[in-house]
Amino acid sequence: MSHVYDRVALIGLGLIASSMFWAIKRAGLAGEVTGYARSEATRETARRIGLCDRVCDSASEAAEGADLVVLCVPVGAMGAVAEEIAPVLKPGATVSDVGSVKRHVIDAVAPHIPEGVHFVPAHPLAGTEHSGPESGFAELFDNRWTLLVPVDGTPPEPVAQLRALWEGMGANVEEMDAEHHDLVLAVTSHTPHLIAYTMVGVADDLRRVTDSEVIKYSAAGFRDFTRIAASDPTMWRDVFLTNKDATLEILGRFTEELFALQRAIRTGDGAHLHDYFTHTRAIRRGIIEAGQDTDAPDFGRAKVKA
Amino acid sequence: MSHVYDRVALIGLGLIASSMFWAIKRAGLAGEVTGYARSEATRETARRIGLCDRVCDSASEAAEGADLVVLCVPVGAMGAVAEEIAPVLKPGATVSDVGSVKRHVIDAVAPHIPEGVHFVPAHPLAGTEHSGPESGFAELFDNRWTLLVPVDGTPPEPVAQLRALWEGMGANVEEMDAEHHDLVLAVTSHTPHLIAYTMVGVADDLRRVTDSEVIKYSAAGFRDFTRIAASDPTMWRDVFLTNKDATLEILGRFTEELFALQRAIRTGDGAHLHDYFTHTRAIRRGIIEAGQDTDAPDFGRAKVKA
User: Where is the Prephenate/arogenate dehydrogenase domain (chains A, B) (predicted)?
Assistant: First the structure.
């Protein structure tokens, strides 16, 4: 494939940025990829494993002359990074990000974007429980969705160019506005993460059931929660603080439903429980048909070693 | 391997019984395995796919002369089945079950067990989101735990024999008492299932986020909940109705923790959130080290087809 951008700069070198680098290289989507991470240890690791064509010692150095600058830092740090790199941004360049929350990122970043530079927020819906520069791999975005959330007044060309990059990295791309994005993600990602964190916290907190029992018997259902609850703490703290309204709203709905089921258990209302559990089964079938999961029995268990 | 039992009867032919049959055959653990299912369609399917050496048209016919009878029906149906087969049970035979709740099963089944027949309740901690006679496979129990919950006064021999069967089917075996079993399972399995069902129900119920959006973007975290929430509705209804006290207790703890995190979000207490999320990460590491999951990135995603 011919280059989509001559030079791409990745600011922040965690799971997403490192996967972007390997996916860009896999498809030859950029001439040069520069990178910067705040921690010197991360920069050293990146240099050692060949992550980025050039690892820079400041965000400005990495961003200078880049045709695309992607902010891959926690949502709470986006504004400060945008302010720092603003003076070196090339006219006609595009700034994007990979944050899980969009309204807050737009409010924090857009004021720093100079005239003549485009800002096209994005959010790849892909991840694993691992984080850091060594956790990335080229296939992370394959057949996953990336949502573009262009701000008002953005011309179509920079949006189309960013779409081409994400499609070149294997993703399916869709556009939506920031408010709808934040609500959809509160339902499909943010609230599920908070609930998983809570359940794992409860299990760890109980003294009558030992930690080793929880761990040994996790395959009975708990295991799937721990996978979610092992995600990066800083990233998730920022998500909840910056998508507060939508998360609290969905949490309120969740609590309401949970209390209704709890009441059905307490009163022995088996019909209510059976109806509810039958209904939720159909949604799973839709996810398998949409290609976002496999129906292989117990999902990957063959890989588990004794 | 030489036979552990001459004849085994499986009453109920769903995921667990069909997996037991294939695992017994894989290791040659029994001379003959008979089977019975209440639904004629299930019995026909079993005959067609060669599930059981002999499929019988009544539970009594299947159980008659068996050295081990395993009740593989929903927890709420165990008592009636035990009553039905009691008259044909062979002296010296063992009756067992695979129910997810133990105190209730013991109370429902034990009164029907004749003098001279042993009752050794058991619970294999293994399953998939699929159910029915065609969902079983020989590897289901490999490296998974099966808990034996012997009742007072049971001699050691029938317990040891049942242990040998489960170990022959690939499981790790441990013994515990019924009350502790029901609490451990409320933490590791029952409450997580209820929460997953609730979250999936909430997502499906929201009208501002469409079903197709929930399904398309499920890889962002929600997907893991739907896998759990696709389990058999009848089985889970019975679990919650019969392990009511422990489930309600753990749910109470869960709600307490959730409200504390919700408050931290509302007040912007980032330190509380970060500490909590850091703590839950460690438990995940323990589960991987205990061999109950793999740390492969995004767990099996390579199998997903577009």
Answer: 6-295
R_g (Cα) of chain B, nearest Å: 21
Contact B219 A144 (CB under 8 A): yes
Q: Is B119 within 8 Å of chain A by CB?
A: no
**Second CATH level (architecture) for the domain A180-303:** Orthogonal Bundle (1.10)
Q: What are the extents of the domains in chain B?
A: 5-176, 180-298
What is the side-by-side strand order in the sheet with A68-71?
A54-55, A30-36, A5-11, A68-71, A94-97, A118-119
Name the helix (H) or strand (E) containing B33.
Answer: strand B30-36
Chain A CB contacts of B300 below 8 Å = 294, 296, 299-300, 303
- In this structure, the strands spanning B122-124 and B145-148 are antiparallel
Nearest residue in B to A227, CA atom:
B284
Q: What share of chain B is helix, strand, coil (3-state, %, to 5)?
A: 55, 10, 35
Q: How far apart are CA B9 and CA B12, in angstroms?
A: 10
Task: Retrieve residue A189's tokens.
Answer: 């990602």
Chain-chain contact of B201 with A303 (C-beta, under 8 angstroms)? no
| Element (DSSP H or E) covering residue A71 | strand A68-71
The half-sphere exposure of B83 on its side-chain side, counting CA atoms within 13 A, is: 7
For B180-298, CATH gives 1.10.3660.10
**Radius of gyration from C-alpha coordinates of chain A:** 21
Q: What is the rounded CA–CA span in Å between residue B244 and residue B263?
A: 28
Residue pointed to by tokens 């703290």? A237
Beta bridge partners of B11: B36, B71
What is the side-by-side order of every strand in the sheet holding B118-119?
B54-55, B30-36, B5-11, B68-71, B94-97, B118-119
Task: Going residue by residue through chain B, which has 306 residues, state the pLDDT in tens, using 9 for 90 and above.
Answer: 579 999 999 999 999 999 999 999 999 999 999 999 999 999 999 999 999 999 999 999 999 999 999 999 999 999 999 999 999 999 999 999 999 999 999 999 999 999 999 999 999 998 888 889 999 999 999 999 999 999 999 999 999 999 999 999 999 999 999 999 999 999 999 999 999 999 988 887 777 787 788 888 887 778 888 888 888 899 999 999 999 999 999 999 999 999 999 999 999 999 999 999 998 887 777 777 777 776 665 433 333 333
Query: Which of the following CATH numbers is that of domain A5-176: 2.60.120.380, 3.40.1390.10, 3.40.630.30, 3.40.50.720?
Result: 3.40.50.720
Which chain A residues touch B202 with a CB distance below 8 Å? Answer: 187, 191, 250, 253-254, 257
Specify the 3-state DSSP secondary structure of A147: strand
CA distances to A15, A156, B96, B144, B179 from B121, in Å: 46, 66, 5, 17, 13
- Nearest CB partner across the interface for B214, out of A187, A215, A233: A187
**Residue B174 β-bridge partners:** B147
